[in-house]
Specification:
Length: 435
Amino acid sequence: MMYFRREEDTRARRALPDADRLNDSVTLRGVGLEAIERTAGTAEYSRPLSEAHVQLAGANSSEKEASGASATVTSQGGSTHVVLSGRLDADSIAPIWERVVPPVRGSDFSTLTVDGKGVSYCDGAGIGLLMELALMCRAKKVPIAFEGLSEDLRTLIEKATPAELPAPAAAKPDVVSSIGLSASSVLNDLYELISFLGDSIMAFGWAITHPTKVRWPDVLLVCERAGVNALPVVMLLGFLMGLIIAFQTATPLQEYGAVSQIPVLMGLAMVRELGPLTTAIILAGRSGSAFAAEIGTMKVTQELDALNTFGVRPMRFLVVPRVLAAMIMTPLLANFCTLMGLLGGIPTMLSFGYTLQFYIEGVRSAVGPEDLLQGLLKAVIFAFVIGAVGCQRGLKTGSGPGAVGRSTTSAVVAGIVLIVVVDGLLGVVFFYMRL
C-alpha cells in the first residue's frame, strides 16, 4: 500500500501544471494525500486531485487577502484611537507606517489608544511601529494604552522601548564657541603630550637602570625598519636639498661677487640646521606614522588590554624600544643627510668655475666641532619627540574603522609641528650659549 501511494504521489506531481508545482509540497502534504487515499485505484484520480489543488490554492489566496494589514486613525475630543489588524511584518509595514505615524505625530491629543485585537502576526517591523508610537507619546508626555495585544507582544514592546529618550542633537556652536572649543582641545592635547613625555622620561630612567630588561631584539628590529630602510630617501632628499640651496643662492651672491661664500653657507646650513631638520621631518612622516599605526592597531584589537591583563606595561614593552631605536638611528641618518647635502653643492660650484678643493676647504674652515655637536644634539632631541608623539598617538587611538587613520595623521602633523617648535627653542638656547 505504501509503494502504491508513492507511485500515485509521483503521478500527481507530474499531472500538476508548472505554475502549481511551486506549491506542490504543501498541496500533496495537505489535501493531496487525502485525495490519494480516497481515489486510489480509480481511473478518475487526476481530476479530483487537480480540483483539490485548485481549491487549496484559492484558499491560500483568500487567506493572504484576509491577512493583509490595515490601519485606521480616528480622533475624538482629546483622544486618538489607532486600530491595527492583519499581519504587521516587513512586507506590509511601510504603508501602515505612513498611514499611522504622520497623523499621530501631527495631531494634538491627551491620550492615545492602540487597538491590536485584529493583529494576526507581528515581527520586528511591527514592534518598531508600536515602539515609535510609544516614544512619540513619551516625548509629548501623554499616556498610551495598548489594547487587545497578547502578553508576549506586550513584553517585547516593553523590552524594545528604551528607558530614556535619546538626547537631542547638539546645536552647532557659533564662531566664538568654536574658537574656544578648539583652543581647549589644543590645550588638553598639549597637556596629555607633556604628561606622556614625562612618563617616557621615567621609562627611560628605568631602561638605564635595568638595561638587561630592555627588549633589545625589538630595538634592533625597529632600527632596521626606521633607520636602515629610510637611508635611501634621506640621502636623496639631502642631496637635492643641497643642490637646490646652492643653486638658488648662487645667483644673488654673484651680483655682489660673493659666490665664494657658498661653501660657508652650505656648511653652516646643512650641519647646524637642514641636515637634522630634514631627517626629522622625513622620519616624522615615515617612522612616527608607523609607530602610531602599529600601536593604534594593537589598541583597536585589544592587544594592549591583554598586555595590561598580564601585568606588562605598554610604556616599557612598546614605547621604550621604539623611541630608543629612533634616538639611535636619527643622528646617523642626519649625518648622511648632511653629507649628501654638502655633495649637492659641488655641481653648482663647479659650474661657476671653482674647483672641488676650494669647495672642500671652504666647508672645513666654516664648520667646527661645536657645529657638528649642535646638529647631533638636535637630531637626538628630534628623534625623542618623533618617537614619543607617534607612540602617544597610538596609545590614544579610539574605536572605529577610522581611528587608526586619525591617529596616524595626528602623529605626523603633531610631530612636524613640535619639531619646528623645538628647533626654534634650541636655536634661541644655542644663541645665548654662544654655540
